[in-house]
Design brief:
- The protein is mainly alpha-helical.
- It has 12 helices and 4 strands; from the N terminus they run ααααααββαααααββα.
- The chain has helices at 2-5, 12-31, 33-50, 55-59, 74-118, 129-167, 178-222, 230-234, 241-246, 250-253, 257-299, 318-323, and strands spanning 172-173, 176-177, 307-311, 314-317.
- The strands form 2 sheets. Strands 1-2 form a two-stranded antiparallel ribbon.
- Helix 3 (33-50) runs parallel beside helix 5 and helix 5 (74-118) crosses helix 6 (129-167).
- It is elongated.
Length: 324
């Protein structure tokens, strides 16, 4: 700025000032050469990471291996700047494919996350807005998995094959050919689904076997229960149910034994209840008779005329006593 303000016209004085300024700037550049080269190397490293360069590609640039600061000069700086320009152009070509690969990798990760959601039934125990938000999230994930993932895979397969033809090298992502990465991911996914299906089939078979065992156990236990009561057995004779069959009582034996037991218990309870009721009725009648007798004695019930004094619990006429 000081140099530009000191210029008036294009005379010899101005030219001398220009030469002095150039000399100053070159000297400043020499003093800062080490820092300039180190800054260029940092940019080179960043571009190599973004372009997913292999170790062999990283070692192709020999200027990165010079550590002697006495060799830092304009030529070395120019080599770094040219290599930065080359990597920048390569990155611009790779940018669309890298963006699509990033989107596809995100959907691949969501696919496993979605599988985890489906295995967790507790997520449906939420209420209100939380449950709605969870279901909407799963719906969006499912849509991306079913629609976007196949689309990204098809487009990338076509574009990556074109890259191999045009650049005579595979398109690398994290140091590996992305076409091979997609193939491995598809194989791993198919293997995972087959494994899950096999686990599901084995669990279903186990449940079926357990269910059959339970049914068999129930059927066996129903005929190995406690014996019937004596009253029920007496209906079939001393041999129990077998005797009933021999006597022709097939209708009774056609019922389940558990039902017969229940009927026998009901009869027992009914018989006991009936006996208790009859006994109660007898006691009540006795008490009524006793009460009537006591009331007659206390109140002095009059006897019919012509009846004498009680003798041996019987009443005799008075006239017969007088005659005797």
């Amino acid at each position: 700025r000081a140099f530009s303000e000191s210029i008036n016209g294009l005379g010899m004085e101005t030219l001398n000032k220009g030469e002095k300024e150039m000399t100053r700037l070159y000297q400043m550049k020499e003093d800062m050469m080490g820092n300039l080269i180190l800054d260029c190397r940092e940019r080179v490293k960043k571009l190599l990471e973004e372009t997913n360069a292999t170790p062999s590609q990283r070692n192709n640039f020999q200027g990165m291996n010079i550590d002697d600061e006495t060799l830092f000069n304009d030529d070395l700086l120019s080599e770094h700047e040219n290599y930065i320009s080359l990597l920048t152009n390569r990155l611009e070509q790779m940018r669309p494919l890298l963006d699509m690969i990033g989107k596809r990798e995100m959907v691949v990760a969501e696919r496993m996350q979605y599988e985890g959601f489906l295995k967790d039934p507790t997520r449906l125990q939420q209420r209100g807005a939380a449950l709605t938000k969870q279901l909407m999230k799963e719906e969006k994930m499912s849509r991306r998995i079913k629609k976007d993932l196949p689309k990204y895979t098809d487009v990338l397969t076509r574009k990556l094959k074109e890259w191999v033809v045009n650049h005579d090298e595979p398109f690398l992502f994290k140091g590996d050919d992305y076409l091979m990465i997609m193939n491995r991911q598809e194989i791993q996914w198919q293997t995972y689904k087959e494994t899950q299906a096999e686990i599901k089939r084995s669990k279903k078979q186990q449940y079926q076997e357990v269910g059959v065992g339970v049914k068999k156990g129930m059927a066996t236990s129903s005929y190995k229960s406690a014996p019937l009561s004596d009253k029920t057995n007496s209906k079939f004779g001393p041999a129990g149910a077998g005797a009933g069959v021999e006597k022709g009582n097939k209708k009774a034996l056609s019922r389940p034994l558990s039902r017969l037991r229940g009927m026998s218990r009901m009869r027992d309870r009914g018989g006991a209840a009936g006996a208790g009721a009859r006994g109660e009725k007898k006691e009540r009648s006795k008490s009524v008779r006793a009460g009537n007798t006591s009331r007659g004695k206390t109140r002095g019930i009059s006897r019919p005329r012509g009846m004498g004094i009680l003798s041996r619990g019987r009443a005799r006429p008075v006239a017969r006593n007088l005659i005797n």
